From TrEMBL:
Organism: Albugo candida
Protein name: Recombinase A
NCBIfam families membership: tigrfam_recA
Pfam families: RecA_C (PF21096), RecA_N (PF00154)
Key words of the record: ATP-binding, DNA damage, DNA recombination, DNA-binding, Nucleotide-binding
Ranges where the RecA family profile domain occurs: 57-217, 222-295
Region ranges (Disordered): 354-383
Protein family membership: Belongs to the RecA family.
GO MF assignments: ATP binding; ATP-dependent DNA damage sensor activity; single-stranded DNA binding
GO aspect biological process, one term: DNA recombination
Length: 383
């Protein structure tokens, strides 16, 4: 019985030794393959997913709206990715994009570019939204190919942090420009976008630049079931985009009889970095953009930083009165910018608290234990 056990043990250890040899052989073969790849294509062509460069947290650019930053799940728009903002006319697409530019310039002193394919940018409006127009580079291309070539060159330079292209629907292919009115040009724009996105994706990741495409909505004919709405420029953009934002205007905001803005609803239609389908609501004031003070008032009340008793608002920290009614409370925050910044920072700390990084290394057997097992295997096999 002892002999049978002894032979069984030998068989098991022989099998383990073979597997160990195969594992070591695979590792050396893989190391040789990686060295060959790096000699051909450069260091870093193949990396482990847990390496510092890939596993690091994605940097973001704030949209200018706390509610939307929270809905995105990561605190803003991701760097090095493609973003699509689409919606009907006058829904706030350009305003949101200019707000992103203003936030990038303020926080990181980012270099930003605006590719104005629609030839409709208003410098005075951009300045009113907080954009530093002296440091904003603008291009008004003649064709779709020219617009995308300029975009590609700026991104490949590695010196630009944010590029906004307004809009996909205005990217006219050169063949369409050179043709006559009424000529049938089938899927030229879709093919142009598909080719451009294949080139741009890799450049964006390497240069850490964010590219925002603004897009318009069209109606499909003869649709009975489902939504008849479709974005222009083909389907390639919806695949390459890491984040897609559907922006719509809702109820009007009035001051007396005058309409001064509207409530805006943004749905995160696609999100590769956090949970999608979240909805953000905020006010947009004509000529001013996103109503930041209104957001601070609402979120501050929800998270216990501002106390509301009936129509009266007061600060929770020192019980200082802010005024009676929403308008006076907003005026208080506008007058005391330091208090508004303190509330905003407290909200960001609460809403965007970084989760503890998970330990990405698998826990294995202790090195001394591994050495002992290996030594025991070798002694049994030799005997």
């Amino acid at each position: 019985m002892g002999i049978i056990d002894h032979h069984c043990a030998v068989k098991v250890y022989k099998y383990d030794s073979k597997r160990l040899w195969q594992t070591e052989n695979k590792k050396s073969a893989l190391a040789m393959a990686i060295r060959q790849i790096e000699s051909s294509f450069g260091k870093g062509s193949v990396m482990q997913l847990g390496s510092a460069k890939i596993a690091e947290r994605v940097e973001t650019i704030s949209t200018g709206s706390l509610t939307l930053d929270y809905a995105l799940g990561i605190g803003g728009l991701p760097r090095g990715r493609i973003i699509e903002i689409y919606g009907p006319e006058s829904s706030g697409k350009t305003t949101l994009a200019l707000s992103c530019i203003a936030q990038a310039q303020k926080k990181d002193e980012a270099v930003c570019a605006f590719i104005d394919a629609e030839h409709a940018i208003d410098a005075h409006y951009a300045k009113a939204l907080g954009v530093n127009i002296e440091d904003l580079y603008v291009s008004q291309p003649d064709s779709g190919e020219q617009a995308l070539e300029i975009t590609d060159t700026l991104i490949r330079s590695g010196a630009v942090d944010l590029v906004v292209l307004d809009s996909v629907a205005a990217l006219v292919p050169r063949a369409e420009l050179e043709g006559e009115m009424g000529d049938q040009q089938i899927a030229l724009q879709a093919r142009l976008m598909s080719q451009a996105l294949r080139k741009l994706t890799g450049s964006l990741s390497k240069s850490h630049c964010t590219l925002i495409f603004l897009n318009q909505i069209r109606q499909k004919v003869g649709v009975i079931f489902g939504s008849p709405e479709v974005t222009s420029g083909g389907t390639a953009l919806r695949y390459y985009a890491s984040v897609r934002l559907d922006i719509r205007r809702q109820t009007q905001i009035k001051q007396g009889d005058a309409i001064i803005g509207n409530e805006t609803v943004v749905k995160v239609a696609k999100n590769k970095l956090a949970s999608p389908f979240k909805i953000a609501r905020f006010d947009m004031i004509y000529g001013k953009g996103i109503d930041r003070m209104s957001e601070l008032l609402d979120l501050g009340t929800q998270h216990g930083l501002i106390n509301r008793s009936g129509a009266w608002y007061s600060l929770v920290e020192n019980e200082a009165p802010m005024g009676q009614g929403r308008a006076k409370a907003k005026a208080f925050l506008e007058l005391h910018e330091d208090i508004a910044k303190k509330i905003e920072q407290s909200l960001r700390d609460t809403l965007f608290e970084e989760p503890a990084l998970a330990d990405m290394e698998q826990e294995g057997t202790d090195d001394s234990e591994n050495a002992a097992v290996k030594e025991e295997q070798e002694s049994v096999i030799s005997s």
